[in-house]
């Protein structure tokens, strides 16, 4: 772990990697766990220096008996520091990890937009980044997914993560040394969840790689992120030259390397509102773009079809036959 004091590293990350400017309004997503509580206190220390305006958002998933206590803890802490706090609860709880995460993001993003915040700040740390990497490897993510959690992610309100260079243990030690309490979520020990199996089984097994392996992995993730940023820039340039509403000229695609071609297609298709694209979808569209014949089609998620018309790729919602 770094010898630079935690507070200095977080300030540097917040300003240099996350792009936060003095005087900005930030919504902090605080669950009550050690990572988000450490984030809250560390950012609080920066308020006099950066003149930040802070607000807190807390989402109760209602999946644990202790969740009401978590909410009360966060509300009390925010009010003690004079920070506006916004809380909500899940009306249709589901044990799905993805559904829970999406519900929380939707709530926090809605609050951040409504309160005209400059950024949504989350407490993800280095182990979260590594866990996400392994989960995405298992799901077959492409380069963008493998780049993992980023310091700043553009959105309706940009999402920033100033603790990505910090380890879970040092955050808990920092809180313990200052007698700052946090809440423990019992679901974090439930091995029925894939993320917990990565956290409690896979990451400890990697300790055999020797001291500093987390930092080395972090550096590789930074390289992956930089590679994706470069690839995305190239792909956007190609898509802007070759793309038009609902269509993409094939001539600009045929000589592209496979990875760049799939990236161009992914960006273009997502711009058409097509979601849940997997690698096999992109590979099928790539084959259509490079070797397909006029009139040939392939089907994509959401009843969308991609078709060749006059040397262009076009997309349209597939017609569902009427029943009689």
Description:
- With 324 residues, this protein is an alpha/beta fold.
- It has two domains: 6-217, 3-Layer(aba) Sandwich (Rossmann fold), CATH 3.40.50.620; 245-317, Uridine Diphospho-n-acetylenolpyruvylglucosamine Reductase, domain 3.
- The chain has twelve helices and eleven strands.
- It has helices spanning 6-17, 34-44, 47-50, 67-80, 97-114, 126-139, 143-146, 168-177, 194-205, 213-242, 258-271, 279-291, and strands spanning 25-29, 53-60, 85-89, 119-121, 152-153, 159-160, 243-244, 247-249, 297-300, 304-309, 312-317.
- The mean pLDDT is 91.
Q: Class of the largest domain in CATH? A: Alpha Beta
Amino-to-carboxy terminus distance: 68 Å
Give me the side-by-side strand order of the main sheet.
Answer: 3-2-1-4-6-5
The mean pLDDT is 91
Number of domains: 2
Number of separate helices: 12
Q: Which superfamily, in CATH terms, is the homologous superfamily of the largest domain?
A: HUPs
Strand content: 5-15%
What general form does the structure show?
elongated
User: Helicity, in percent?
Assistant: 40-55%
Round the Cα radius of gyration to an integer and report it. 22 Å
Order of helices and strands: HEHHEHEHEHHEEHHHEEHHEEE
Oligomer status:
single chain
**Poorly predicted regions:** none
Name the CATH architecture of the largest domain. Answer: 3-Layer(aba) Sandwich
Structural class: alpha/beta
CATH-derived topology of the largest domain: Rossmann fold
């Amino acid at each position: 772990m770094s010898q630079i004091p935690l507070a200095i590293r977080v300030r540097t990350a917040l300003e240099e990697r996350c792009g936060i400017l003095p005087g900005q309004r930030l919504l902090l997503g605080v669950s009550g766990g050690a990572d988000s509580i450490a984030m809250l206190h560390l950012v609080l220390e920066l308020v006099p220096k950066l003149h930040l305006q802070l607000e807190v958002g807390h989402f109760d998933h209602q999946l644990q008996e202790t969740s009401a206590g978590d909410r009360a803890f966060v509300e009390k802490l925010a009010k003690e520091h004079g920070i506006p706090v916004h809380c909500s609860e899940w009306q249709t709880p589901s044990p799905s990890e993805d559904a829970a995460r999406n519900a929380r993001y939707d709530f926090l993003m809605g609050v951040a937009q409504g309160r005209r915040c400059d950024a949504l700040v989350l407490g993800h740390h280095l182990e979260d980044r590594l866990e996400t990497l392994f989960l995405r490897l298992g799901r077959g993510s492409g380069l963008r997914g493998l780049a993992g959690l980023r310091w700043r992610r553009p959105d309706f309100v940009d999402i920033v993560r100033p603790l990505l260079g910090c380890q879970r243990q040092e955050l808990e030690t920092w809180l313990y040394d200052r007698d700052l309490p946090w809440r423990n979520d019992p679901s974090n020990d439930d091995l029925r969840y894939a993320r917990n199996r990565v956290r409690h089984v896979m990451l400890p097994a990697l300790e055999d790689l020797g001291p500093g392996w987390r930092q080395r992995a972090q550096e590789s993730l930074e390289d992956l992120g930089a590679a994706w940023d470069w690839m995305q820039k190239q792909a956007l340039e190609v898509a802007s030259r070759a793309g038009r509403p609902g269509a993409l000229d094939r001539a600009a695609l045929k000589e592209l390397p496979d990875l760049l071609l799939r990236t161009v297609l992914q960006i273009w298709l997502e711009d058409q509102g097509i979601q849940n694209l997997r690698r096999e979808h992109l590979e099928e569209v790539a084959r259509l773009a490079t070797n397909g014949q006029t009139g040939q089609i392939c089907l994509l998620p959401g009843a969308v079809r991609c078709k060749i018309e006059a040397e262009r790729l076009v997309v349209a919602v597939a017609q569902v036959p009427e029943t009689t």
